[in-house]
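INTERNAL TRANSFER SHEET
From: sequence group
To: structure group
Subject: ATPase

Please process the attached sequence and return the structure record in the designated field. Keep the field labels unchanged so the import script can parse them.
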Amino acid sequence: MFITGASPASDMNIVPDTSVVIDGRVSDRIADGEFAGATVAVPEAVVGELEAQANEGRQTGWDGLEELQRLADLADDGEIDVEYVGRRPESSERRAADEGDVDALIRDLADDRGATLVTSDVVQSEVARAKGLDVVFIEPVGRDVESLDIGHFFDETTMSVHLKVGVAPMAKRGAIGDMHYERIREEVSTEAQLKEFAHDIEESARASPDGFIEIDEPGMRIVQFREYRIAIARPPFSDGLEITAVRPIVKTDLEDYEYADELRDRLVERQRGVLISGAPGAGKSTFAQAVAEFLTDADYSVKTMEKPRDLQVGPQVTQYTELAGSMERTADSLLMVRPDYTIYDEVRKTDDFEVFADMRLAGVGMIGVVHATRAIDALQRLVGRVELGMIPQVVDTVVYIEAGEIDTVYDVTTEVKVPEGLMEEDLARPVIVIEDFETGRPEYEIYTFNRQVVTVPIGDREDSESGVDRIARQEVEREIRSIADGHVEVEVRGRDRAVVWVEDRDISQVIGKGGGRISDVENRLGIDIDVRTFDERPGGKRRGSTAGSSGSAPNSNSAGVAVTPEITSRHVIVPAEGHAGDTVEVQADGEYLFTATVSRGGEIQVSRGSAIAEELERAIDRGQQIVVSPS
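Return from structure group:
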């Protein structure tokens, strides 16, 4: 393909590579007169590379295509000739562009045509000179990287700025725990404005030693520039060009927090496993930065694992991200580096928890940042991801941050004991005890009860009795329903006594000859059980019946979602879309069945033949409504 206007005056023949086309340096040199009248042979390899970048949503591709249009306009004006030469690179060659395959195609074209290669790539220029080619090396575009154009949106109270095409600029401003999302300019942002901002951000990150591109995926680029973490989203990933810039507005020291002395002593006593938890924006990362700075000053080797890297730590702390797309590989490398402590920001997915646990069990002090709405929720996220008995070895301290302050600190230990609320000594088992760090008072216990993991609030908490009673009722119901054919209900009356209501036809079967069968159940559960018929209950009615009903109606749990379980040959599968990784309760007609952690696929699988599966199947057979609700 040949584009020409009036015949140019020069016989100069040049072949530009991708780097100078992206920077717009060819048209600049034409305007300066250096390349005036030249024949510009644009390799199809350059066009293919730019087209691929533009299709991936990368600004460099669009910049290069704009330069090609400028060259076409100059050819129309008769100032140069433009010719497209060579072949397009194969997809395998484009994928190997970083290894020099595309650059080799461009050099070969310049050699075949006896043309001058024009490049801003120092490696390309050196290789071309070594092969005897004529080369014009143009220094890459220098930039003022002292500040970013979007910096004028920030003041001392601004944590984040949010820009989107067709929307007025917004910002989060205020103090930690008191942020307000507010409009900061009346006029809406245009696409041209946001493209200029994005170009400035991306080029500044490339040119500055204080900046880098953290993530570069089709439609999403995340840039770290000094204290700013900036996400640039483009269609089709987003419905419009959007720029979100975030920076910390507070840098703290550990002594700024409550329990500072105790936490300092705890962290230096030995390597610990700590979860820093809280809601988004609560100040978790700010506290993690303070801990990192303290540990560094205390002569510990500290590293971070982050994606993206946005903790504001000193130069002594090396910040690592995913290695070859995997935090597991990062962890393997860190074990060779042998840090004393590693800050893992953020621990969210099952793989993250597994990596955290592996490093902690290898002897590295680990501090993980976790999203949670309660302190206990942070610990429960380990359930099902780490073997229950190993949890206190992985995490021995939970710090809950709210509004920039330490709200709660839990100490996590293991004891072999009878769980709180149960009586028989033969019910002793390993129990994870979660104590309030300040008072030493037990707050929760986590243990296995009848093949399921339960978290029970204890002490004088308002919900402690209902928690224990709920589990006791569940276990008694399970045992009696395995004996009775008809309907069964249980009322727990105190820590060691329950009343069981059954149909008339089932009472002798449940009690057994000489009371032997019910005695076996009592011995297994450590609870005295009084078996009665529904006719003996005041009003003579079962819960859920029209008259005298005192139970929950099927639709009473507004916080839950009704689901339809699937029964396969091996499992009962309960769908729990939107709760992947969460701990949830499963209920039948408002009655508690069990608690479970939802898989990454958004479902709960219960093995058929287990007591839980049998109870769930009976509820399904009776047409009861199955509801999944947050625990």
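Handover comment: Residues 51 and 403 are 47 Å apart (CA to CA). The longest strand covers residues 405-417.
Transfer complete.
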